[in-house]
């Protein structure tokens, strides 16, 4: 599959920043989600209407996910987990909505998301334990395991980014092969494949990414 070619360049002095379709789609998604968040959270009432009920169900589900898997002491991470889940899900199902490649088929996008989680995991571990205990955990349960423990930490963003990128790209490749077939395969066959790879698998990969994120935030801090 071809990579994401730059649509245009942004010039900052001598620096040229390529803007690909994955970046452009993300900008559109961010704007749409921000507008929807403003619309759905305005005019909140004690007795919720249908709009507010939907929002409360979503927020309640994310809160239960964090409380059940991390504990109530991690409630401050609910906004991050919720934003991450919604953002990745919308990116994964973008091909169905806008007919363009999902931004998560771009390795730079999944790597960026994985690095945010990686640094948040380390920040939380240092916040919970202090710098001394955080560094000391790398030598547990024995000092000779120090190199392996370092590799284990570094592998986290690699595995997160490649898992999300690989699964979304594999689905796109299969669908792309179907569109290159006969008129019958182009018209009828891709429909269930879009439903599976873009909607079902896209949702599953979002859940996997989010679950690995919340488990690593908790586990690394408690080692």
Structural account:
With 223 residues, the chain is mainly alpha-helical. It has 8 helices and 2 strands. The protein is globular. The protein has a two-stranded antiparallel sheet with strand order 1-2. It is 74% helix and 6% strand. Strand 1 and strand 2 form a beta hairpin. The chain has one domain (44-222). One of its GO terms (biological process) is proton motive force-driven plasma membrane ATP synthesis. It is found in: Cell membrane; Membrane. Belongs to the ATPase A chain family. Key component of the proton channel; it plays a direct role in the translocation of protons across the membrane. Keywords: ATP synthesis, Cell membrane, CF(0), Hydrogen ion transport, Ion transport, Membrane, Transmembrane, Transmembrane helix, Transport.
Give me the secondary-structure topology.
Elements: E1 6-12, E2 15-20, H1 21-41, H2 50-70, H3 78-92, H4 94-98, H5 107-136, H6 146-179, H7 183-187, H8 190-222
Antiparallel strand pairs: 1-2
Q: Summary?
A:
With 223 residues, the protein is mainly α. 74% of the residues lie in helices and 6% in strands. It is built from eight helices and two strands, in the order ββαααααααα.
Q: What's the N-to-C terminus distance?
A: 41 Å
The global form is globular
Strand content: 5-15%
Q: Numbering strands along the chain, what is their spatial order in the largest sheet?
A: 1-2
> What is the CA-atom radius of gyration, in angstroms?
20 Å
Question: Average pLDDT across residues?
Answer: 86
Estimated structural class: mainly alpha
Which series of helices and strands comes N to C? EEHHHHHHHH
Number of strands: 2
Largest sheet: 2 strands, antiparallel
**Helical element count?**
8
**Residues in helices, as a percent range:** over 70%
Low-pLDDT runs: none
Number of domains: 1
Protein name: ATP synthase subunit a
InterPro entries: ATP_syn_F0_a_bact/chloroplast (IPR045082), ATP_synth_F0_asu (IPR000568), ATP_synth_F0_asu_AS (IPR023011), F0_ATP_A_sf (IPR035908)
Keywords: ATP synthesis, Cell membrane, CF(0), Hydrogen ion transport, Ion transport, Membrane, Transmembrane, Transmembrane helix, Transport
Function: Key component of the proton channel; it plays a direct role in the translocation of protons across the membrane.
């Amino acid at each position: 599959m071809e990579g994401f070619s730059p649509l245009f360049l942004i010039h900052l002095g001598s620096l040229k920043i390529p803007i690909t379709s994955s970046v452009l789609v993300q900008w559109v998604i961010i704007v749409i989600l921000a507008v929807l968040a403003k619309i759905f959270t305005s005019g909140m009432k004690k007795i919720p209407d249908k709009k507010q009920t939907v929002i409360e169900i979503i927020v309640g589900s994310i809160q239960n996910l964090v409380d059940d898997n991390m504990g109530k002491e991690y409630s401050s991470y609910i906004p991050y987990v919720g934003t991450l889940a919604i953002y990745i899900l919308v990116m994964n199902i973008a091909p169905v909505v806008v007919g363009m490649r999902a931004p998560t088929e771009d390795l730079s996008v999944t790597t960026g998301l994985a690095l945010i989680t990686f640094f948040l995991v380390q920040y939380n571990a240092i916040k919970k334990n202090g710098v001394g205990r955080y560094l000391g955990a790398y030598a547990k349960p024995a000092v000779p395991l120090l190199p392996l423990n370092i590799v284990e930490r570094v592998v986290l963003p690699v595995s997160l980014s490649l898992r999300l990128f690989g699964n979304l790209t594999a689905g796109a490749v299969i669908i792309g092969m179907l569109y290159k077939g006969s008129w019958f395969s182009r018209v009828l066959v891709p429909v269930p494949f879009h439903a599976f790879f873009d909607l079902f698998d896209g949702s599953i990969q979002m859940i996997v990414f989010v679950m690995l994120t919340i488990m690593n935030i908790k586990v690394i801090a408690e080692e």
